[in-house]
């Protein structure tokens, strides 16, 4: 089984990616929730919580969460 790391900006985008991956093969999927361009903090938190809720039924998908830091985007 091949591994794939998916950048995740939000749960709806991940859902589409997962459907596409299912169609083409069997993958061990890991995700990276990293979005320095999401602003303000409330929006970042909404997306992160929505993603966690969506993934609660898929414990086989490991996700790495990068902390909110908009300074990287605004520099």
What does this structure look like?
By secondary structure, this protein is an alpha/beta fold. It has one domain (2-74). It has 3 helices and 3 strands, in the order βαβαβα. It has helices spanning 11-24, 41-55, 71-74; strands spanning 2-8, 27-33, 62-65. It has a 3-stranded parallel beta sheet with strand order 1-2-3, with helices on one face. 7% of the residues are buried.
SSE inventory with pairings:
Layout lengths: L1 E7 L2 H14 L2 E7 L7 H15 L6 E4 L5 H4 L1
Parallel strand pairs: 1-2, 2-3
* Residue share in β-strands: 15-25%
The ordered string of helix (H) and strand (E) elements is: EHEHEH
- Main-sheet strand order equals 1-2-3
User: Uncertain regions: pLDDT < 50 for 5+ in a row?
Assistant: none
Rg for CA atoms? 13 Å
Give the fraction of residues assigned to helices: 40-55%
Total beta-strand segments: 3
How many domains? The number is 1
Number of helices: 3
Integer average pLDDT: 93
Terminal CA distance reads: 40 Å
Characterize the quaternary organization of these chains: single chain
**What is the overall shape?**
elongated
Structural class: alpha/beta
Largest sheet: 3 strands, parallel
Care to give the gist of this entry?
The chain is α/β, with parallel strands linked by helices. It has 3 helices and 3 strands; from the N terminus they run βαβαβα. The protein has one domain.
Provide key terms for this protein.
single chain, 75 residues, alpha/beta, three-stranded parallel β-sheet, 3 helices, 3 strands
């Amino acid at each position: 089984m091949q591994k794939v790391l998916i950048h995740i900006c939000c749960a709806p985008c991940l859902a589409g990616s997962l459907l596409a991956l299912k169609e083409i093969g069997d993958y061990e999927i890991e995700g990276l929730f990293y979005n320095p361009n999401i602003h303000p903090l409330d929006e970042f938190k909404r997306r992160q919580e929505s993603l966690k809720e969506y993934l609660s039924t898929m414990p086989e998908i490991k996700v790495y969460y990068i902390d909110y830091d908009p300074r990287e985007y605004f520099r």
